[in-house]
Design a protein that fits this description.
This protein is mostly helical. Helix content is 73%, strand content 0%.
Length: 205
């Protein structure tokens, strides 16, 4: 019984995290609208600014730094909840979730704002964190789809899972091809990642 209660609390924390993440990004973006545009950011068109990471560089950047931390803890919480409740344990997919949670935590190192080669050590750490997040989410979703395909309680999630890497890869490829929509495609890719962990949290809940 205690295990179920603990899993429910972890799921609740993990379910709120993605919603809170998007809400804080929106709030900080509005507060730093002029600052972001001075950096060269544009919501739709392709630009040299890493978004939403660049919001951590502004006057309200501490909010986004905390946001990365809470999101990382939320992803790890859902991973722990899945580990403790799903039998047999999907060890590999949970391992990828822990990596994704770690990537969000490490993303709290502030970016240097450029989408090119990092110019600071903390910018390099942030860039590596994003690569780890993309890698762990892409392969983690595929592995989870395979491991939980026969679990009746998780079958719908397993069916949805392959859409995550498809959207991620498509957004990366199309960003280079459709320069006039590069910023928007980047946002779609980020939302696919956040949405995936929201789905896992809601299903565990």
């Amino acid at each position: 019984m205690n295990e179920v209660v603990t899993a429910h609390r972890l799921a609740l924390f993990g379910s709120i995290g993605p919603i809170l993440f998007v809400a804080i990004v929106i709030v900080v973006t509005v507060l730093e609208w002029d600052f972001l545009h001075r950096l060269g950011w544009h919501l739709v068109q392709d630009n040299p600014v890493v978004y939403p990471s660049a919001t951590a560089m502004g006057p309200y950047g501490w909010l986004q730094t905390i946001n990365f931390v809470q999101m990382g803890l939320g992803v790890i919480a859902v991973g722990v909840g899945i580990w403790s409740t799903v039998k047999p344990r999907p060890r590999v997919s949970v391992g990828f979730m822990f990596l994704a949670g770690l990537a969000f935590l490490v993303s709290s190192f502030t970016t240097d704002g450029t989408s090119g080669e990092p110019t600071t050590w903390h910018g390099a750490v942030h860039a590596l964190a994003f690569l780890l997040l993309a890698f762990s989410t892409l392969f983690g979703a595929l592995v989870l789809a395979f491991q939980l395909r026969r679990d009746a309680a998780w079958r719908v999630v397993a069916l949805v899972a392959p859409a995550v890497p498809i959207v991620l890869v498509a957004s990366l490829v199309l960003t280079g091809a459709l320069r006039q929509a590069g910023g928007l495609l980047n946002v779609i890719g980020i939302l696919a990642i956040i949405g995936w962990y929201a789905i896992l949290g809601w299903r565990l809940l």
